């Protein structure tokens, strides 16, 4: 007798697993594009107007906080215990400090280095998976880690801008 979760040998699943993941991949790629676009937009705004970073971050986070409060309605749920109040306030202060330092770093370093700094955690995650994760597909993980490290190296050398790329010389040569 078969369990209800097993698929008989003469039947295959109606949809492969990759087909079900396609909408999630599209959302992921679109979200990353929007994030990078917003970083460049914020950088352009802060560098052109000379607006205060603290005031800009505050004016962006207050409306979103109010919207979240109205959507989540935390006052209808269980109240925080006394042991949770202090860590919540500390977490809020650290998050506010992070956003302010992020904005000041964006203004002083530019969007490319901020993106590099944000995605450096992905390198640590892959490194952790290689060292401490399951031992299946190790070469894929090592290859991904090497590709990320190479891309970070090239971006840190300024190869994202056309004039710093080693291929820039080829575009300046006239093939007549």
Automatic annotation (TrEMBL):
It is found in: Membrane. The chain crosses the membrane at residues 49-71, 83-102, 114-132, 144-162. It comes from Salvia divinorum (Maria pastora). Keywords: Membrane, Transmembrane, Transmembrane helix. It is a multi-pass membrane protein. Its main location: membrane. The keyword Transmembrane applies. This is Zinc transporter 5. It comes from the Eukaryota.
